[in-house]
Amino acid sequence: MQKVFFPLFHALAMLSLAASGSSEQRTARYFESIRNSPSQQMAFLLKVPKGGDLHSHLSGAVYAESMIQWAADKGMCVNTAMVASPPPCDSTAGQVQAKTAFSNSVLYRQMINAWSMRAWEYSGQTGHDHFFDTFGKFGAANSGETGKMLAEVAARAARGHVSYLELMLTPEGLSMQLGKKIGWDSNFVETLRALESHGIYDAVTAGTQSIKTAEAQKDSILKCGTTQADAGCSVTIRYLYQVLREFAPGQVFAQITTGFLMAEDTTSKVVGLNLVQAEDGVNSMKNFSLHMHMLDYLRVIYSKAHISLHAGELAPGLVPPEGMTFHIRESVLIGHAERIGHGIDIMHESQPYDLLKEMAKRNVMVEICLTSNDVILGVRKEQHPLNTYMQYHVPVALATDDEGVSRSEMSMEYLKATQDQGLGYVQLKEMARNSLVHAFVSDGEKMRLEKKLEEDFREFEMGY
């Protein structure tokens, strides 16, 4: 009886599934059926293949708990403002050993809150100020820990079914020193010559070696190449050289030059560059157009580097209204941005609809960082331009920005996209694909990643 019933039941089940549409449609319908249950959607999204995370600052991607451990291991100190510093600790200045946090639960909580956006609403600061202040507090704790940081971020990406990471980092400090020494006289040609004659190529060598050393440590921590290898070993990682735009023009120019040079060197795994730090900062605002012209000049000389730019990470009241009218436009038209990070103030730009059409025409993708935009700028739900970008066919993909500081990760960004922005499964799937289509990885590696993503989607959807 059972031998007859099972094949009949199986056949009827297959007919029912076929009648209900494609596996993608079935999966999308199931996802809609649990829309009013964020917890069930989260369980679903944790398993969804997500492609790449194209906007992630390594320094902000690590959780505070890890950095507290590193500070304790190095015998570091922390003061009453929760700022970490090297030993010895001066008790008269209110410093205690960081390891005290493991026996003092109040201190432990205070350090996590100060080093992340957890409970920032009770800090007495705006989300913007609290976020940017965290880096100065924990910076000494993660200094020299790049390998450990890579291991943590890669392992978390693998658990969230993220297969590719483009991590922003500044792998060397020599270029900043050279830029400060040489200065800036507004002469692109002569400043570049001075950098070359004073050893800018040494910065490239130092940066490349720094990344190789960190990756070797990451591989060791994750036991890559062994039978006990962590899933994070399979995550493909490339790097964007992050330029600190709040510094003096000569230093910014030197860093941009180093970023271009490292991206020209195929052994460095640096595929492009980005300008970072608060866009509303005094030098960021004053020198924004100058920075775009620096990129324009060097882009002609160094053509292999890819460019993604933070632009439009601004909200009304943060800067004067006129300061929100040109950053995205100049990043695309002058700075040669292939991708835009954030793009929040797009509708404040001069002639925004023309700009949207131009971005769609140029296939400029926008890296959407929902949690970051929420906690830093207070831009959320219908205030966010995500759906406007999609309406005008500008490609978009979700990203984490600073998942450790923001206490987020990619699956949470997907949940925020569906709960706050109303996106469905098919739209999320398209964004995952976009994250690889617009990745700055080599063509061969991109094809492999895209093929694997489609295979993962097919396997995932079989369950629905």
Overall mean pLDDT score? 95
Widest sheet, order of strands: 1-5-6-7-8-9-10-11
The number of distinct helices, counting runs of at least 4 residues, comes to 22
Shape: globular
What's the name of the CATH homologous superfamily of the largest domain?
Answer: Metal-dependent hydrolases
How many domains, as an integer?
2
| Top CATH class of the largest domain | Alpha Beta
Largest pleated sheet: 8 strands, parallel
Structural class: alpha/beta
Beta strand % = 5-15%
CATH architecture of the largest domain: Alpha-Beta Barrel
Spans with pLDDT under 50 lasting ≥5 residues? 1-19
Taking all Cα atoms into account, the compactness measure Rg is: 23 Å
Under CATH, the topology of the largest domain can be stated as: TIM Barrel
Q: Give a count of the beta strands, DSSP E runs of length 2 or more.
A: 11
Q: Between the first and last Cα atoms, what is the distance in angstroms?
A: 28 Å
Measured as a percent range, the helix fraction is 40-55%
Q: What order do the helices and strands come in, and which of them pair?
A:
Layout: H1 2-19, H2 23-33, H3 38-45, E1 51-57, H4 58-61, H5 64-73, E2 77-78, E3 84-85, E4 96-97, H6 105-114, H7 127-142, H8 146-159, E5 162-169, H9 174-182, H10 188-197, H11 200-221, E6 236-244, H12 249-264, E7 270-276, H13 282-286, H14 288-301, E8 306-311, H15 327-333, E9 339-342, H16 352-362, E10 365-368, H17 370-377, H18 386-391, E11 396-398, H19 403-406, H20 410-421, H21 425-437, H22 443-461
Parallel strand pairs: 1-5, 5-6, 6-7, 7-8, 8-9, 9-10, 10-11
Antiparallel strand pairs: 2-3, 2-4
